[in-house]
Amino acid sequence: MIAIKRKIIDFIKKTNIIKKINYNKFVFYFLFGLKSQFGQFKINISTKCLVLSQYPGAETKGLGGLIAQYPKNFEILCLTNGSSLLPQFDSIESASIKKQQFTDVMKSSRVKGYKIFDIDDKTLKNHYSTFKKIDISEADYIFVPNVYDNNIDTIALLKHFKQILKDKEHKENLKVIMYESDFPLCALDYFVDISSIIGTKKRMLETYYPSDKYPNLVNKTLGINAFRSIQHGCDYCETFMAFSVDEFLKIPLI
């Protein structure tokens, strides 16, 4: 089956039927679109989870409920400082506000470890020297944003992460887990019922997106959690796509 898929993909590439950007997406859907595991994601007391966030708040959008349920199992690294996220302020003040929001959310959620890097938005591609210092050796799961998020720092994050997977020591059975922050996942492997803790996730989101400045944004963000829950007999759930390291390294990036 794999050999047949490879021949079809090579044929499409050689015949130039579709443009490169669509080709990349086609490969991604073709190789991974048939994933059908879709079980309940579980964490035990010794599980170590590392989250890589492309901007302050992305981690809460994608897996704030899971983090709030198992804060002692998580280390959260936010790779940019939010310097462009508040256009009403200059970059220094915007970064200061977003860093404080990130810290407040992490403290209120009792997360075991967290750090926000002093890297300006849209410049992460220039900071591999900083990124490569991240220790991935102890993680059982590393959470990363959706490969097709429409964000320049997401692509930089994923490219840098691919490189450290090649260069640095990691567990043999490490799993890479994609989460939804700015764009829905195209296929799903796992879900987590967050109904009992949805109020906590809402408060986490409201720290980043207060209603007086972002009307309805929090409710709209939680709407995807409500939609994702339809198949599982709960009110809200977060969903994820899982890869082995080898699978993840094969995913094309735009």
Number of helices, counting only DSSP H or I runs of 4 residues or more: 9
> Which segments are poorly predicted (pLDDT under 50) over 5 or more consecutive residues?
17-21
- Bin the strand percentage: 5-15%
Shape: globular
CATH homologous superfamily designation of the largest domain: LmbE-like
Structural class, by secondary structure, is alpha/beta
- CATH architecture descriptor name of the largest domain: 3-Layer(aba) Sandwich
CATH domain fold name of the largest domain: Rossmann fold
List the helices and strands and how they pair.
Elements: H1 2-15, H2 20-32, E1 39-40, E2 49-53, H3 58-69, E3 74-78, H4 91-108, E4 113-116, H5 128-131, E5 141-145, H6 152-167, E6 175-179, E7 190-193, H7 198-208, H8 217-228, E8 237-244, H9 245-250
Parallel strand pairs: 1-7, 2-3, 2-5, 3-4, 5-6
Antiparallel strand pairs: 6-8, 7-8
Helix pairs in contact: 1-2, 3-7, 4-7
Structure description:
The chain is an alpha/beta fold. It has two domains: 1-34, no CATH class; 36-250, LmbE-like (Rossmann fold), CATH 3.40.50.10320. It is 42% helix and 15% strand. It contains nine helices and eight strands. The chain has helices at residues 2-15, 20-32, 58-69, 91-108, 128-131, 152-167, 198-208, 217-228, 245-250; strands spanning 39-40, 49-53, 74-78, 113-116, 141-145, 175-179, 190-193, 237-244. Helix 1 runs antiparallel to helix 2 (20-32), helix 3 (58-69) runs antiparallel to helix 7 and helix 4 packs antiparallel against helix 7. It is globular and about 55 Å long. It starts with a helix and ends with a helix. 36% of the residues are buried.
